[in-house]
Write a structure and sequence with these properties.
Largest sheet: 5 strands, mixed
Helix content: 25-40%
Oligomer: single chain
Amino acid sequence: MAFTRKRKKILAATQTGFGSNPENYGGRFINKDGSANVVKTGIPFIDQISWFHTLLEMPGLKFFTVILSVFLFINLFFTCVYYLIGIENLNGVTAVTEIEKFGQAYFFSAQTFTTVGYGHISPKGFWISFTAALEALSGLLAFAIATGLLYGRFSKPKAHILFSENALIAPFNDGKALMVRLAPFKNVNLSDATAKLTMGLEVEEKGKKVYKFFNLDLEYDVINLLTLNWTIVHPITEDSPLFEFKAEDFKGKSGEIILYINAFDDMFSTVVARRTSYTFDEVVYGAKFLPMFEDDDSMNTTILHLDKLNEFKNVDLM
C-alpha cells in the first residue's frame, strides 16, 4: 500500500509506545478489557507484581476468596505454633482427643487474631502468651490492610463504559466510515468525554514488514455529556489510511484499532479513562448499528437498551 507524504507526517507524530517490528510482537496490542497484552520476564515473579494494584483490580469473588484464604492460613499457622508449644499451656481446653485439642486451639487463634477474646480459653506461660500477643498484633495489621483494600476497591474512580464487540465499516454521508459504539452502564455523570482512535497496520517497507501507526481523525472527538450511547466515527476520506480498504483487506491484513476514552466523573471530581481495541477480524465491513434508545410509553423518559449495544444490520456499501 502506498502512503502519501501527508500520511507519513501523521505517522511520525504518533507516539503509541508500541514497537514497529511485527516479528517481535505476539497477538494484539491491547486486550478487549483495555489491559496491555504484555507478559514481563527477566526479574523474579514476586517483583513483577504490584499486589496492591492486583488486589484492587481483582474480581470481587476472587478478592474475598483471597481474604478468606489468608485468614484461614494465618490462623492455621498460629494454631500449629500453639500446638507445638503445648496445648496444656492453654487454660480452658476441655478436649480429650488430639483433633479436638487442635480444633479448640484453632478457634482460640481465630479469637486472638480478631481480638474478640471470649475468655473461655486463655494462655499461660511466657512463650504461648508471647505468641498470642504477636498474633493479636498481626490481626490488627491484617485487618487494617483488608479495610484499606476494601475502601480502595469501593472508592476507586472507574469509567463505567461498555464498548461494542465489533467495529463497523458503515455508510456515512456520501461515503463510508469506521464506527465504534460505547455507552455508560451505571448511574454516573460523565462529562467532557474525549475520544482518540489509533490504528496499527502491518505494511511492507523496504522489503521488510513493519507496523505503522495512524491517528484516525474523528467526526467528533469531544462531547459535553455522556448520558446515552456515543458512536465514534472516523470518516474514510482520501486522507484516511483506510481509504483503499475493501472487505478482503480486513481479512488479509494484520492490524488493530485502539480506542482511548477519557471523561470527567462529577461524583469523584476527577478524570476517568477506558480503552479497548479491535483487531481487523473484529471489523465488520458493510454494516451499521441499530438504534439502542427510545422514549417510554409516557414519552417522559428515554430508555437506553444496553443489551443492544452491539446490534447491527448488514448493508451494501458503494
